[in-house]
Predict the 3D structure of the following.
Amino acid sequence: MPHIDTDMRRIVDSAKLAFVATVSPDGSPNVSPKGSVRVFGDEHLVFMDIDSPRTVANLIANPRVEIAVVDFLRRRGYRFSGTAEIHEAGSAAYNWLNEWLLERNGPGYPANRAVLVHVERALPMRSPAYTFGHAEEDELTAQWLAGYSRSEPPG
């Protein structure tokens, strides 16, 4: 079983958005953005079903899931593959994530149920800029920050 290491945690914590991929009943892919993905222990990710009826229905029918988390400034991230379980209000995963959401967003923030994902595989994703040695992480981050401050990302 893969261990979610410190770098993976750092990426999940710094990324403000993740993409969850499920399989629809007709076999087609379903990708849904999630702003609540967090690391829960050493082997799990969790996200909240805020308004995700299709994602939850797909996971009930087929619990296989992949979550892509990318820190766009660092231009790298991870693909986490695993199996999902739906957790209702009152479970440890739900309560922990709901507390985090309420701290960030205030009382009354909608939270239907938590989706706990047992991570079975984690693969790195990196910009080709790393592969071809064109830049280091600090340089890429500075370039992208400068581009976004001009409201247009660099080439």
Q: What stands out?
A: Helices lie at 6-14, 53-61, 92-105, 128-131, 137-149. The first strand starts at residue 18 and ends at 23. The mean pLDDT is 90. The two ends are 39 Å apart (CA to CA).
